[in-house]
Amino acid sequence: HIRQTMSGVLQMCSRRTVSVRRQCWKSLSASEPRWYSATPRALDEEATATKKDDSADLRKIAQEYNRRKAAYKRQVSKLRKGYMQEYQRNKAEDDAQRDAEAAETTRRRLERQRAKNERSIQNAYRQQELRRQTELAFQDHLRVQQEKREYEKDVFNRARQLVIDELEEEAPLWLTTPEEIEAAFTPEAEQALWGRPQGVIGVPNPSLDSEFWQYECHTWDMSKTYKTQQDILAEEYEDRVYDETNIDPSYWTPEKIAEREALERKAKLRANVRTEGRKSLLRRQKEFLDDEAETPEGEVPRPKPIPSLGVLGSNKAQEKEGAEMLLKDPTKFFVFQRKADSTQSEASEESELDESYSGPSLGAPVDIKDPLRHNSPQGRVFPRGIGKAPKPDMRSEKEKKRQEREEKLWAAAQAQARSDKDEIDMAADDDMEFYGEPLDYDKNDGWDSDDEEWFKGLDPDRDAEMMKVPREYRYREEDIDWLIQKLETKASQMQSHVNTTIESMEMETRSRMDDADKMPEAESQPFFDETAVAKLKSVGGDVDRFEKLMASLSKDQMLSLFGLEADRRDSKDEATGSPFDGVPGLTSEQITGLTELDA
């Protein structure tokens, strides 16, 4: 504002100065008339006169200019003072207005801040009350949870005390030391534990027949390569040999096997009864829930009630329901001597309603029905694919070329048929007719069958049972020869592995004996390790005496002992006399000590 005012003043002053100068020149020209001569003056005279006149005129003009300039300055000074006073007055008014506006803005800002502070105080009070209520609710939640934890802890302590009482009752039968374990694992105990499924030693299982056969795991072999008949025969024979080798017939007598099989059948029957009872209860529960959720016509459908899990948790109710089903229809649980006639068993509607069997007498039960295996042709849970090597191609070159030519002609015909079919409208596909009779897969004689070769030389009347043997159980002489060769190869490999192991043990012993000779007598290592020492102590052997006995033997005598042990493992005949007679250089005391150690 000040800058604009000063620029306006200066412009006005400059315009005034120009106008004053113009008036001065006009007055001078008007006050002094000009004189003209008819005769021209000389150049010097005229110049001299002009200079004198000009100096006087210029002096007057200068005086007039100075006078007017002083007057102009006085007017400008007066004008500037007036402008300055007006500027200061306007500035004071502007400052007062600006101060008033700033004071009003400050007042409004303070009022807004005061309102904000009041709202903040109210929110703080509200949050404080909310925190107080939350704290009270949390304390109440902690109290409730603490009561639940105390109740659960009390239940857990009672259950733990019951377990401790049972364990303390069984504690005298526990095996806690290596000596007790070695004493418990006798050959009879190992047969009882590993001879048949569900074997236990020590504390008998109080519910051996309750959980037996209830849960089974079956895995389908999904390998891309099928086993041949020879491979299956080899596996079955190896399993049979393994059982004959590891199962002691003197322990598993026919009476004990019969008792065990009876227990297994009882356990299997109870598991089947419980399973059928659970299915029946779940079916009845579903029908009851469907009746409860049934909605009359015209009403809003009601949600189906949630089934209770009490049916799955009550074994007693499942067994009771299954027992009732067993009494009504025993054909669901047993296999009888004569099969039931389906037409007679399904004729009576009443028998279908109460699920009871009504039909001819089936005789005595011969086995317990296995729902997973009895309906399978192979007697397995999952079918087992059997691979078969393709037969050698016995055709002549002429027959091979003829078939190749026929395949090419057939491929060309198929390509022509596909091209013709693309040109026909797709809607005509429904009207197409297939020429020829449909395939009967039961009478397909074109597949690679071995029935003709198997039936060759068999009498349909006398050898009817042999002709009914499934293909996977048909074995020939070449299969038996292959099995014998494979078993001999495997036996030789295992014998080679045993010999290699014995040789490595001999080398390790020889190196250990060489290191013992190089070491001082005070640093020599004992012959028996901790396990051998524990076994000797458990049977009452003198460890120091046996250590001295083994230290008195030479290297050759030690190697002869290892070779003698390997020969004795390989030979099946029982040795007559002392086995250490073949070791050279043994004294009678050493033979006695070795015999005692071997025993």
Structure summary, number of beta strands? 4
- Strand fraction equals under 5%
* N-end to C-end Cα span: 129 Å
The secondary-structure class comes to: mainly alpha
> What is the residue-mean pLDDT, rounded to a whole number?
77
Read across the widest sheet, the strand sequence of neighbours is 1-4
**Low-confidence spans: pLDDT under 50, at least 5 residues?**
12-18, 27-38, 340-354
Number of helices: 18
Indicate the multimeric state: single chain
The main pleated sheet reads as: 2 strands, parallel
Radius of gyration over all CA atoms, rounded: 61 Å
Shape: elongated
Topology pattern, helix = H, strand = E: HHHHEHHHHEHHEEHHHHHHHH
- Indicate the percent of residues in helices: 55-70%
Q: What does this 3D model show about the protein?
A:
- The protein is an all-alpha fold.
- It is 64% helix and 2% strand.
- It contains 18 helices and four strands.
- Strands 1-4 form a two-stranded parallel sheet. It has a two-stranded antiparallel ribbon with strand order 2-3.
- Mean pLDDT is 77; it is low at 12-18, 27-38 and 340-354.
